[in-house]
C-alpha cells in the first residue's frame, strides 16, 4: 500500500511530458513482466489480428529491453541498426539494456475500453486526417521508470508503445516521458551516467530486410533527447501507420 502511494505521488511530480502517456499500471489492470534481466512476457495471444508491414500477427511479446515483438522474443540487449538481417519483426520504442531488477516495471494490456479507444481515435484523426480511422482495439505496453543494466545511479527512463487497430488500418504510437539514460554497462555504457557505448535504438523493423525506420538520433547520444522530437508535431510522440510501410511527417525538435 505504501509502495503504491509512493509511486502515485512520484508520477504526480514527473515532468509534463508524462501526460503524453496513455494510462497504465495496476489501476488499469495491467499485467507486469517478471523481474528478469533480458526477459520478456509470456506469449500474448491478441483477440484481433494486427497487421504489421503487410503481415498479420496473432500474438506478440513485450520484451524488457524496450521492444514489442511479433512471433519471437528479443533478449538482445545491445541494439543493432535497422534493417536487421535475421527476420525479427518488432517495434522498438527504446531498445537498450533495461534492468527492471535494478529499478522500474514493465506493464502491458490488451484493451477495448471505450474511453481509451475514443482517445486513440481522436489522436489518430488529428495526426492523419486523410485516413478514416475509428479504433476498435488497442494494446498498451509501458516501461515505467526502468533502470539500465549495471546502473550505480538513480537514472530511469519511462516510455510507451500503443498499438491501435480498426480492422483495416493499424497504427503504432511511441510516447516518451522521462529519458535519462542511453546505454547499459554491457553495451559499453558508464555505470554512473548511463551514457556512452552503443546507445539505444528506436524505430521499426519489418523482418523482411526491406521495410524499416530508424528514428533520428538512434544509436547516438542524441537519442537521449527523443522526448523533444516528433513526426506529428507533439514533442515526445512518434506515430506511424504500419499496416503498409509509410513514414509520415518531418521530424521536428522543440526549441
From TrEMBL:
InterPro entries: Epithelial_Barrier/Signaling, NIDO_dom
SMART domains: NIDO
Span of domain NIDO: 93-245
GO BP annotation list: cell-matrix adhesion
Top-level taxonomic group: Eukaryota
Protein name as annotated: Alpha-tectorin-like
Organism: Pelodiscus sinensis (Chinese softshell turtle)
Amino acid at each position: 500500500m505504501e509502495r503504491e502511494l509512493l509511486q502515485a505521488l512520484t508520477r504526480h511530480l514527473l515532468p509534463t511530458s508524462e501526460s503524453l502517456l496513455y494510462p497504465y499500471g495496476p489501476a488499469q489492470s495491467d499485467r507486469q513482466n517478471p523481474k528478469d534481466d533480458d526477459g520478456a512476457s509470456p506469449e500474448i495471444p491478441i483477440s484481433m489480428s494486427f497487421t504489421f508491414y503487410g503481415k498479420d500477427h496473432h500474438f506478440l511479446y513485450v520484451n524488457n529491453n524496450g521492444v514489442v515483438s511479433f512471433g519471437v522474443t528479443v533478449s538482445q540487449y545491445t541494439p543493432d541498426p535497422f534493417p536487421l538481417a535475421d527476420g525479427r519483426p518488432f517495434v522498438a520504442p527504446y531498445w537498450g539494456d533495461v534492468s527492471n531488477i535494478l529499478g522500474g516495471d514493465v506493464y502491458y494490456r490488451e484493451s477495448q475500453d471505450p474511453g481509451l479507444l475514443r482517445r486513440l481515435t481522436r489522436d489518430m484523426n488529428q495526426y492523419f486526417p486523410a485516413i478514416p480511422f475509428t479504433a476498435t482495439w488497442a494494446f498498451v505496453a509501458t516501461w515505467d521508470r526502468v533502470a539500465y543494466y549495471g546502473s550505480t545511479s538513480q537514472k530511469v527512463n519511462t516510455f510507451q508503445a500503443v498499438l491501435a487497430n480498426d480492422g483495416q488500418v493499424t497504427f503504432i504510437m511511441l510516447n516518451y516521458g522521462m529519458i535519462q539514460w542511453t546505454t547499459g554497462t554491457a553495451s559499453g555504457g558508464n555505470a554512473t551516467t548511463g551514457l556512452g557505448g552503443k546507445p539505444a535504438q528506436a524505430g521499426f523493423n519489418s523482418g523482411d530486410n526491406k521495410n524499416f525506420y530508424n528514428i533520428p538520433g538512434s544509436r547516438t547520444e542524441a537519442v537521449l533527447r527523443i522526448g523533444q522530437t516528433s513526426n506529428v508535431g507533439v514533442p515526445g510522440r512518434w506515430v506511424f501507420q504500419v499496416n503498409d510501410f509509410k513514414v509520415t511527417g518531418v521530424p521536428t525538435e522543440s526549441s
